[in-house]
Design goal:
The complex is a heterodimer of chains A (1225) and B (296). Chain A is of the alpha+beta class. Among the domains of chain A are: 273 residues, no CATH class; 285 residues, no CATH class; 134 residues, Aminopeptidase N, middle-beta domain (Immunoglobulin-like). In chain A, strands 1, 2, 4, 7, 9, 11, 12 and 13 form an 8-stranded mixed beta sheet that branches. In chain A, helix 22 crosses helix 23, helix 22 runs antiparallel to helix 24 and helix 28 packs across helix 29. The radius of gyration of chain A is 36 Å and the shape is globular. Chain B is of the alpha/beta class and 296 residues long. Helix content of chain B is 34%, strand content 27%. A 6-stranded mixed beta sheet of chain B has the order 6-7-8-3-9-10, sandwiched between helices. The longest helix of chain B is centred in the middle third of the chain and has 15 residues. The two termini of chain B are 40 Å apart. Classes of the chains: A alpha+beta (1225), B alpha/beta (296). At the A-B interface, helix 14, helix 18 and helix 23 of A face helix 2, helix 3, helix 4, helix 5 and helix 6 of B.
């Protein structure tokens, strides 16, 4: 007999066995599915990649790759519960990529194999089927995700880790992070993606969902960036990450290192909301899923049916095909490549995966551009470079992701649709197919990049910013960004050709891309190893891309070589026809490899390696071999070992400085010559002269005094001379020098001279001390008062300079302009200061416009980039405001002039103060002050006031190099600026500025340095010297009176003004402040300056009763609590004698603790704010004295309050500022 | 042009010898490759169509050494695989245009003419704007023919094209194929004997990777003259007859009796009638001989 039996289903299919066994269907399907997944190699690839990645990352963070264990005083513990949680969530987000590939596939593969046509006629329950499918996928995903904690634990156990950054293994922390965050998130996203794939019967919708969620995150991040919306964002963040952040945002270092994450009601509610969402999603899937042949697309109703009768009777037809030309020439195939790429592109553009991602992308890019996050606490105008910068990081990731995915889809397109045999038997060459797909990807990238431009221009137009720079958009998007994407496309095409599973390809490419960042941690620091990474750059309106472009193109060209090699190798491995296994593919590839194609590939690969080697060595040669951070560290250690002993060698001090500085902006170089007079102010003989020329410069010098070299070190740049006749006390010597920058190379510009907007500091000139990081001594140590906080070899100096620059520029140095002339086609300026200043100066040169004004007899000037005229008036006002305030309360301004000079963003985003010059970054010139009416700081105004105040606090009063120096300079400058601001905006508006400072302080407390009290603040602790210092002095002026405080400051200033060594300290300043403070408030001095003290005040309850006389009787319950913190952030509630308060408050579980209280705290009652976005006008505002934790206050007022608060203006340091205000119900 | 296959062997990694040292000479005209499922037909056809490399052997088509000059063959090849899909949501017209591009027709006007004509020939004009993935089986097969015609192929390979078509569709399909086959070499594989009977000048029967018989249908049938016998038997006797004779085929009658056809050099008995040889008989005899189940 020749009747062959066909079984549609193999015997191991459980669906047949229903009748035989009584096992529940769920178990059957589930077991079958799990067997399937256990056989999938891709699952193991996912698991292994994640395991390796988490191990390596954790090992790296545990110091596994550091050559010498870091010896910082306080460390961030790598495996603290907080860090574990952070890392787990990081990997969990990567795991999301696996979900569509596994959970999506689990349901999709029945459609794909068309098994569903048979399967869905089988007698099993929908619930069994769906649940089993989802659960098997989820089990697989969870099994893969188990490699995350395993890898992390292994990473901390491997040899080479630094035990100082590791705590004991904390099992509970891993369990908590995994079961509270990771697993619920995997369940949620699995349910979601499962639903989408099941209902659309399209595997790629799962992926779209993922990308759209990613967009959503970008959008919510932008929308909820304000302070007030934090809680809502935390509650509704699907990942729960924001909830965790919300609970830990003010954590100190100690808390970050030790505490378990709180399982607060916020966190639990968040988790429950989303777990419930997962269940709802699954139930919805169950309801809408049908065992039918066609996908159900919700919302689309079918058109009315139509009876179709095909023509059943055919006739014999003449086959006479028209004669057409077949063109198999190379040129024709090139044209075909283009044509096919358009067809592929149309396929991409028409797929609704792309369309939905496009729409989501437009929205996300637009919102990100429109809602820029605050940097340095303020927004800037929507300049073109800003519009390009904002979405780049986010959106370039999306473009790459789509590139990875579509590379796979396009390459597998014929195979997926099973038309590969039709395509493969046509005479189209492989390269035509390959390049057409590659080209389609590039065209897609071009299209996506245009979104950034469209979004940017829209945002600019909406904001009324009309300086549209289309050329700049086009250049950066298409002549720069596109290159990186194209190189990724090359890599993607290669990877996706080798593999058959596009998802695995995406996964490998994404992880590979992220792994690049980790290469420097394992010793491959040089850029030649970092595939397709471009070094960071700052565009400047003043100076464009500066000297960045050549190096950018060099590296892009270098990686394009590798990309081209990969593309050629792609041809070698291109699948044409049927191949059963790897061996067949390899044997098919071999002849291609040995052909011309392989030869070209090998040649390209060789060119790549050769140019990489060339770049590496050329770069190394041009930078004395210090190309890596590791080598730099080594270098510093070596230099310290040799010369640190000279740190305390007594030296003469610079008293007189004459410098000729010649700037050549077009060549990015300078030549300088100069002369110092050094005076022996030590009181004894000096027989050794230390000379430390600029490290990156060529310096020749001449000691015009008999001297012999003891040691000359041209590598570390440190020379020691013996003065043949010791320099007697009071004697001086002349020292001349010539300096120029090391020649620029292709790889680096060795000077700070740039095309336009040069800002070059005094660090290029020779000095007379060993340049190293010095510990700041305690202010109580009187031996340490010999040096200023900024210099170890000078007090006040006379300064005279001649600056020259190219003819189209203007050059500025501190001092008054004596003469200006032209010579040899260049411009020369002679500046001279009429009184001694600190050795602290710089040279600026650029094509400036100048705005001039006067305040009394002081000339005010702003040198600015002609396009940056947005904020000039505000800056002028800031300067005037500060002059007004400072001269009224403290002392006269020591100069006749104040000049603000703009410098490009590429040189920094800060502002600083020299004698009569204030260099100001471009960034601050571009501040967007639109919002300042709504309480955002008016940055140009404020910063100008701050910098000018430094003429007093920093230039008239110069503190010693010791802890607390920045309290004298920054805190007081910031305080002065706040007072100037208050005069401009009034008391009530100060609330937002103060809140801003408070937030800045609280958020930075958890940094890796131990926290110091204000009076001993370190230089780097800007959140203390600026933010906390400003708050403390501002509160003090409020508590003891502005006049009173300023009188004390004036007394202090008069005492220490223009003094030479020994210099003043923060302790001296504090003694004046203390003297002006009444006894009842002495506690404040102790708390605010000498300790780290925080309040935890809370408004708990408010009741308002209307009295018969029409007045309102307001009852307020407030909690007052105060605690101290040690440097690591551990809280304590006892004072010096160990006393503390303790009260149980109804409704709270734990008793509330506090330091003993006798504190004055403001209570405020407020009307409704007509604008609705802040506090209304105060109805009642008064300081009350509190001695208890639990307080009830009764206040009678004329007007009905809308809101009440304790310390409503945030004058005090409050650890939880959010609960200070309460609305009247 | 003749297609010459010599010493062709292909062994799959699982050990199956799909093509076993096979020699075959195919002249212009319709050539039928007959064999049961799993005989190695598809492997052979894919190999000829340059989609799969053999382990050893040679294939020539006219001047073209197929294994070394795949592109050369692809230019004049029309191939319709046993099973194929198409890009979803693309109309017949667009898809044919796409294939015309792939086949080297670079002029847009040329492609337009070509596609129009191919649609006319395959009677798909009316549904030219419809998505091919929504076509019925017969329409899809006709689309397969349409794409195959686009490069005016000299060698046409169609792998089991009529499987699953209804009678009208099958007839229409075969008519087109026949029309195309008059001027070219057409290799046509099937396990349906009638297809070959109606169309082919020559046929080969293949099983287990080998060619069991190659002849024209008429000659092959003629060779069987006097060797075939038929008889009506009761259902319960079938096993007995199968044990004693080479039963080529058996089919039910309406009264539940069975007609059997038996291969025998001599008359198997007086109850048997001499039967006129059919192509089916040739096929079954060849397979039986190959399987070694001949009784005499």
């Amino acid at each position: 007999m020749s009747i062959t039996k066909h079984c549609l289903l193999k015997n191991d299919n459980p669906l047949q066995s229903r009748r035989r066994e009584e096992d529940p269907m769920f178990t059957k399907i589930y077991t079958y599915e799990m067997k399937y997944w256990m056989r999938q190699p891709s699952v193991y690839v996912y698991a292994v990649i994640i395991l390796i990645y988490s191990t390596m990352l954790m090992h790296g963070m545990s110091g596994g790759w550091d050559p010498v264990p870091a010896e910082t005083a306080a460390v961030t513990i790598t495996n603290s519960p907080l860090k574990i949680n952070w890392m787990m969530n990081f990997f969990m987000q990567l795991m999301l990529l696996v979900i569509p590939a596994v959970v999506g596939t689990s349901i999709y593969r029945d459609f794909k194999s068309r098994m569903h046509t048979v399967l869905y006629s089988y007698p099993f329950e929908k619930a069994d089927y769906l649940l089993a499918k989802l659960c098997s996928g989820l089990t697989t995903v969870i099994a893969v995700s188990a490699t995350i904690p395993i890898g992390m634990v292994i990473g901390t156990q491997l040899p080479g880790v630094n035990p100082r950054v590791l705590a004991d293994f904390n099992f509970a922390a891993y369990v908590q992070a995994y079961f509270i965050y990771v697993m619920p998130n995997l369940v949620l996203f699995s349910a979601l993606i499962f639903a989408v794939v099941a209902l659309t019967r399209n595997i790629y919708t799962g992926f779209i969902t993922l990308v759209l969620l990613y967009f959503l995150q970008g959008i919510t991040g932008a929308v909820f960036s304000g302070l007030e919306s934090g809680y809502a964002a935390a509650l509704f963040d699907p990942l729960g990450k924001m909830a965790a952040n919300y609970e830990t945002q003010y954590w100190t270092l100690a808390e970050k290192n030790e505490l378990m994450l709180p399982l607060s009601s916020l966190v639990l509610t968040n988790r429950l909301i989303w777990l419930a969402a997962a269940i709802v999603i699954f139930l919805a899937t169950y309801r809408h899923f049908t065992f039918s042949q066609q996908a159900s697309i919700p919302g689309l109703r079918k058109a009315a049916g139509r009876r179709i009768v095909k023509q059943n009777f055919g006739s014999i037809i003449r086959v006479a095909l028209p004669k057409v030309a077949f063109d198999f020439s190379f040129a024709s195939w090139v044209r075909t490549t283009w044509r096919l790429s358009n067809i592929d592109l149309r396929f991409i553009l028409k797929s609704w995966m792309f369309i939905s991602i496009l729409l989501g992308g437009i929205l996300a890019v637009f919102l990100q551009q429109a809602q820029q996050p605050l940097q340095h606490g303020f927004k800037i105008l929507p300049t073109t470079w800003k519009m390009l910068e904002v979405p780049t990081l986010f959106f370039s990731g999306v473009i790459n992701l789509l590139t990875f995915l579509y590379a796979g889809i396009l390459i597998q397109r014929a195979r997926i649709s099973r038309s590969d045999q039709l395509v493969d038997s046509t005479p189209v060459p492989n390269w035509t197919l390959l390049f057409s797909k590659f080209l389609a990807l590039v065209k897609m990238q071009i299209l996506l990049l245009s979104l950034i431009m469209i979004g940017g221009i829209t945002v600019q137009a909406v904001n009324g910013y009309t300086r549209f720079e289309i050329g700049h958009y086009l250049f950066e998007l298409y002549c720069m960004n596109l290159l990186g994407h194209v190189i990724w496309a090359m890599a993607a095409v290669f990877v996706q050709t080798l593999l058959t599973n596009p998802y695995l390809g995406v996964f490998i490419l994404v992880f590979g891309g992220m792994g690049i960042g980790g290469l420097k941690d394992i010793g491959l620091e040089h850029q030649v190893f970092h595939f397709n990474i471009s070094p960071f750059f700052n565009y400047s309106d003043m100076n464009g891309y500066g000297s960045y472009l050549p190096i950018f193109y060099l590296f892009k060209g270098y990686w394009a070589l590798l990309g081209s090699a990969l593309l050629t190798l792609t041809l070698v491995f291109w699948r044409r026809g049927v191949s059963v296994n790897i061996r067949e593919r390899l044997s098919a590839a071999l002849p291609v490899f040995l052909s011309r194609t392989g030869g070209i590939g090998a040649l390209l690969l060789f060119a790549f390696v050769a140019s990489g080697t060339g770049i590496y060595y050329a770069d190394q040669a041009s930078s004395h071999g210090v190309v890596t951070a590791r080598k730099e560290k080594q270098f510093l250690t070596e230099s310290d070992a040799r010369y640190k002993r000279y740190v305390n060698t007594v030296q003469p001090r610079i008293a007189d400085v004459k410098i000729d500085m010649h700037l050549f902006p077009e060549a990015c170089r300078f030549e300088a010559s100069g002369e110092y007079w050094l005076v022996n102010k030590s009181g004894g003989n000096i027989d050794t002269l230390i000379v430390s020329p600029g490290f990156e410069e060529y310096t020749t010098y001449d000691i015009k005094y008999p001297a012999e070299p003891i040691s000359l070190d041209s590598v570390i740049k440190f020379d020691v001379w013996k003065l043949t006749t010791p320099l007697a006390a009071g004697d001086s010597l002349r020292f001349t020098f010539e300096v120029q920058n090391m020649p620029n190379t292709f790889f680096r510009r060795n000077s700070n001279v740039i095309g336009n907007g040069t800002f070059i500091g005094d660090d290029v000139f020779p000095r007379f001390f060993y340049r190293t990081l010095r510990e700041e001594p305690d202010p109580a140590d009187s031996s340490a008062h010999q040096f200023t906080y900024q210099s170890f070899d000078s007090d006040y100096v006379n300064l005279e300079t001649v600056v020259s620059t190219s003819a189209d520029q203007l050059a500025i140095a501190p001092g008054y302009l004596q003469r200006e002339w032209r010579e040899n086609g260049r411009k020369y300026y002679h500046y001279k200061m009429d009184q001694p200043i600190k050795y602290n100066f710089g040279f600026n040169s650029g094509r400036f416009a100048v705005k001039r004004d006067m305040w009394q007899d002081v000339e005010l000037e702003i040198y600015y980039h002609p396009e940056h005229d947005y904020n000039l008036e505000r800056m002028m006002k800031g300067l005037k405001g500060a002059l007004e305030y400072q001269t009224k309360y403290f002392s006269p301004y020591q100069h006749r002039q104040a000049r603000i000079i703009e410098f490009p963003l590429s040189e920094g985003s800060y502002a600083t103060t020299f004698a009569n010059s204030i260099p100001f970054s471009e960034y601050r010139f571009l501040a967007d002050v639109e919002d300042s009416r709504r309480g955002m700081p008016d940055v140009p105004f404020y910063v100008a006031a701050h910098e000018l105040a430094h003429q007093w606090w920093g230039n008239q009063v110069v503190p010693a190099h010791s802890l607390g120096a920045r309290m004298v300079t920054e805190s007081l400058a910031e305080y002065s600026a706040l007072q100037v601001l208050r005069r401009e905006y009034g008391d009530h508006k100060m609330r937002k500025f103060l809140r801003f400072d408070l937030e800045a302080y609280l958020r930075s407390r958890g940094g890796s340095n131990p926290e110091n009290p204000l009076v001993r603040v370190e230089t780097m602790q800007e959140h203390i010297s600026y933010a906390k210092g400003a708050l403390v002095f501002y509160a003090l002026s409020d508590y003891i009176g502005e006049e009173n405080l300023n009188r004390a400051l004036r007394k202090y200033l008069e005492k220490v003004k223009f003094q030479e060594a020994p210099y003043t300290t923060s302790l001296e300043l504090l003694s004046y402040v203390r003297a002006a403070t009444p006894d009842s408030l002495q506690y404040f001095i102790e708390d605010a300056f000498e300790h780290i003290t925080l309040y935890d005040n809370r408004a708990r309850q408010v009741d308002v009763e209307t009295l018969e006389n029409g007045k309102y009787y307001v009852t307020i319950d407030v909690t007052v609590s105060k605690f101290r913190s040690d440097g690591s952030g551990n809280r304590s509630w006892g004072n010096d004698t160990g006393d503390s308060l303790r009260t149980a408050i109804a409704g709270t579980e734990k008793p509330v603790l506090s330091l003993p209280l006798a504190d004055y705290i403001e209570i405020g009652l407020f009307a409704e704010d007509p604008d609705g976005d802040g506090l209304g006008e105060p109805i009642y505002l008064k300081k009350h004295r509190f001695t208890e934790i639990d307080n009830r206050l009764s206040i009678i007022v004329d007007e009905k309050p809308h809101e009440i608060g304790i310390d409503p203006y945030f004058k005090l340091i409050d650890a939880q500022p959010k609960d200070n205000l309460l609305q009247v119900q | 042009m003749n297609l010459t296959i010599s010493n062709l062997t292909k062994v799959y990694p699982n050990g199956v010898k799909a093509v076993d040292n096979l020699d075959l000479e195919i002249r212009p005209g319709m050539f039928g490759l007959l064999g049961p499922n799993g005989a190695g037909k598809s492997t052979l056809m894919r190999t000829i169509a340059t989609l799969q490399d053999p382990d050893s052997g040679n294939i020539r088509f006219g001047d073209i050494n197929v294994l070394n000059d795949k592109m050369g063959l692809r230019r004049i090849l029309g191939y319709l695989p046993q099973e194929f899909g198409v890009y979803p949501r693309v109309s017949a017209e667009d898809l044919l245009d796409y294939f015309a591009i792939l086949k080297g027709v670079s002029s847009w006007a040329d492609r337009k003419h070509l596609v129009d004509e191919a649609l006319r020939i395959t009677n798909l004009e009316e549904v030219r704007k419809k998505h091919v993935d929504g076509y019925s089986g017969g329409m899809k097969q006709r689309f397969g023919i349409a794409q195959l015609l686009l490069n005016d192929p000299k060698l046409i390979i169609v792998d089991e094209p009529t499987a699953g078509l209804d009678p009208a569709e099958r007839q229409r399909f075969l008519n087109i194929l026949r029309e195309v086959g008059t001027r070219n070499t057409v290799i046509f594989s099937t396990h349906i004997v009638d297809d070959v009977k109606e169309l082919c000048h020559e046929l080969a029967i293949m099983n287990g990777g080998r060619i069991l018989k190659q002849a024209s249908p008429e000659v092959a049938a003629a060779e069987m003259e006097g060797l075939l016998w038929s008889r009506k038997i009761a259902r319960k006797d079938l096993d007995d007859f199968e044990a004693r004779f080479t039963v080529l085929s058996s089919s039910y009658n309406r009264d539940n009796s069975i007609n059997i056809r038996v291969y025998s050099q001599t008359s198997p008995g007086s109850q048997f009638q001499p039967a006129t040889p059919q192509l089916e008989d040739v096929y079954f005899v060849a397979l039986n001989k190959d399987e070694g189940t001949m009784k005499n």
